[in-house]
Write a structure and sequence with these properties.
Chain B: It comes from Vogesella fluminis. Chain B: This is Universal stress protein. Chain B: Belongs to the universal stress protein A family. The complex is a heterodimer of chains A (244) and B (142). Chain A is mostly helical. In chain A, 70% of the residues lie in helices and 1% in strands. Chain A has one domain. Chain A contains nine helices and one strand. In chain A, helix 1 packs across helix 8 and helix 2 runs antiparallel to helix 5. The radius of gyration of chain A is 20 Å and the shape is globular. Chain B is built from six helices and five strands. Chain B is globular and about 50 Å long. The chains are: A mainly alpha (244), B alpha/beta (142). The interface between A and B is large, with 40 and 48 residues.
Chain lengths: 244, 142
């Protein structure tokens, strides 16, 4: 049914993909900006360009494989569970556990390599969520990614500001992941036959249950974690003398 | 003890109005100590830290922070006014309020874009949040 591609469900899925990419892709934009920071101006632009191009290509390939996998029995259920977990994790305050161990490169190729490796590692959540939202349509995935990656790369400052001013944006993103997860379960090869006689609105109910579950559980866990506020993080200035 | 005034700046025009106001106060009372503060929104998640070193992040914040402080610092320098500048990382309004309290400031002077109605509703205001959260007196300059 190709005509269905031009109906509202198509655009709804594209909007979901863009929202996921922007919310979960901020990390990647930061790595791209930081990996290229030490490069000379002209190389920096090339580094960002090729890093982004490589990241887009890699993302499409990963999602292509994810879409194949999701056609297997039970894997949509597994994917949905992972999505619920990612959504709940999105609502948790940051832990201070990572260690930077890859040096920011002063070579163009080093920077591009960092960007692409980082993208492969950090886009797993993204890949599952987008594959869930796309419901098997790779064209939609490519379209959503091509639109959202430039927004992430050149608009990441704005997205960060938005999330700082309005933390509700993050809650919305977590709810969206839960929604996709709930919807995804009803599409699983094994689950689907059992739902053959169910009313068509069932997958909406399921999606709403998923969204509610993620927000309620995530908020509850987060409220137990934020006992002690982190100390002020001040950046020492090299020359903080009195100016006069 | 001298009166310490904290002026949060972000490189915008309304932040500069707050700086000008503080400058006028300092001219009337030379005992006033002026401190500029820029707050950077944290960009690192657990994932980012796997790929970017701590020092690199600090460099990044320092560079971005100094760029945001630059215009305000220039105004005070030109006026021959002594001042200090600081960069902190965190949620903006929350960090300003806590910085003022923990570093024993007597007052915050902050600029506001002065948008009302729909603009206020959509964009909110860091100044308003600071007023709500700060235990230290806040002067808002429009």
């Amino acid at each position: 049914m190709p005509e269905i591609l031009f109906e509202s469900t198509f655009w709804l899925s594209v909007l979901q993909i863009i929202a996921i990419d922007i919310l979960l892709g901020g990390d990647n934009a930061v790595v791209i900006a930081l990996a290229c920071r030490k490069l000379p101006e002209e190389q920096r632009r090339r580094g960002i360009f090729w890093g982004v191009a490589g990241a887009i290509g890699l993302r499409v390939v990963l999602i292509f494989f994810a879409l194949q996998l999701l056609a297997l029995p039970f894997l949509k259920v597994v994917g949905a569970l992972l999505l619920l977990w990612i959504g709940i994790k999105l609502l948790q305050p940051e832990d201070d556990d990572g260690h930077g161990n890859i040096e920011g490169s002063t070579h163009l190729w080093g920077a591009i390599k960092t960007i692409i490796i980082a993208d492969a590692v950090m886009s797993l959540d993204n890949v599952i969520a987008v594959a869930g939202a796309a419901k098997g349509n790779l064209g939609m995935v490519v379209f959503g990614i091509v639109i959202s990656i430039p927004i992430i790369v050149w608009g990441s400052k704005f997205v960060l500001k938005l999330m700082d001013r309005f933390p509700i944006v993050i809650t919305f993103g977590a709810a969206l992941l839960g929604w996709i997860a709930g919807d995804m379960v009803t599409g699983d090869v094994v689950v689907k036959p059992y739902l053959a006689d169910a009313p068509s609105w069932l997958h909406y109910v399921n999606a709403a249950v998923g969204a509610t579950f993620v927000v309620v559980t995530g908020k509850f866990l987060a409220s137990r974690k934020t006992a002690a506020a982190a100390p002020l993080h001040e950046i020492p200035l090299a020359a903080n003398k009195d100016h006069s | 003890m001298s009166t310490r005034i904290l002026i949060p700046v972000d490189g915008s025009a309304h932040a500069l109005r707050a700086v000008e106001h503080a400058l006028q106060l300092a001219r009337l009372d030379p005992a006033l100590e002026l401190h500029l503060l820029n707050v950077q929104i944290p960009v690192e998640s657990g994932h980012v830290r796997l790929f970017v070193g701590h020092e690199q992040l600090e460099d990044y914040y320092r560079e971005e922070g100094l760029a945001a402080l630059q215009a305000a610092a220039a105004v005070l320098q030109q006026a021959g006014q002594a001042f200090q500048q600081h960069i902190a990382v965190g949620h903006i309004a929350d960090t300003i309020a806590r910085y003022a309290q923990e570093m024993a400031f007597s007052q915050i002077i902050i600029g506001s874009h002065g948008r009302g109605g729909l603009g206020q509703l959509l964009l909110g205001s860091v100044a308003r949040d600071v007023v709500n959260q700060s235990p230290v007196p806040v002067t808002v300059i429009k």
